[in-house]
């Protein structure tokens, strides 16, 4: 599977309708973003069970703003519609693989239980 470009029309539904979604926030002028792109694309082919999506922060500024993107590239990971990882910086292939392993291994019942105990404002991004 190749990466999917997200826009304001399909960002939310992609996050909620898929078990695991990795989102790469990038821009064409960003050198580290361009350097990370082949790693992300390779991961998408290796893990067809995971949606690998990209958001062009120049074209989709409102998504980037809503997500609180301050530095690119930023990788966000969602599992069962829940943001479980958000970190700026390009990841080397081994680190991306480790991240995917950790996301797959998450106990989502525990994650949901933790989220339910937090005040509503704490869960907002």
Automatic annotation (TrEMBL):
Entry-linked Pfam families: Thioredoxin (PF00085)
Active site: 30, 33
Domain (Thioredoxin) ranges: 1-105
InterPro entries named among the record's database cross-references: Thioredoxin (IPR005746), Thioredoxin-like_sf (IPR036249), Thioredoxin_CS (IPR017937), Thioredoxin_domain (IPR013766)
UniProt-annotated site: Deprotonates C-terminal active site Cys, residues: 24
Site (Contributes to redox potential value): 31-32
Annotated coiled-coil segments of the chain: none
Annotated disulfide bonds: 30-33
UniProt-listed Gene3D superfamilies: Glutaredoxin
Keywords: Disulfide bond, Electron transport, Redox-active center, Transport
GO cellular component: cytosol
Superkingdom classification of source: Bacteria
MF (Gene Ontology): protein-disulfide reductase activity
PANTHER family according to UniProt: GEO12009P1, THIOREDOXIN 2
Protein family membership: Belongs to the thioredoxin family.
Task performed by this protein: Participates in various redox reactions through the reversible oxidation of its active center dithiol to a disulfide and catalyzes dithiol-disulfide exchange reactions.
Protein name stated in the entry: Thioredoxin
């Amino acid at each position: 599977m190749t990466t999917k470009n997200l826009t304001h029309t399909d960002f939310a539904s992609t996050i909620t309708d898929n078990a695991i979604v990795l989102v790469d926030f990038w821009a064409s002028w960003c050198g580290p973003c361009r350097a990370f792109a082949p790693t992300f694309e390779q991961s998408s082919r290796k893990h067809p069970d995971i949606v690998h999506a990209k958001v062009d922060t120049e074209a989709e500024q409102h998504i980037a703003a809503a997500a609180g993107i301050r530095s690119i590239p930023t990788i966000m990971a969602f599992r069962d519609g829940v943001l479980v990882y958000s970190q700026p910086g390009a990841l080397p292939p081994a680190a991306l693989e480790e991240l995917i392993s950790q996301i797959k291994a998450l106990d989502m019942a525990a994650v949901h239980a933790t989220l339910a105990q937090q005040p509503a404002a704490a869960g907002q991004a």
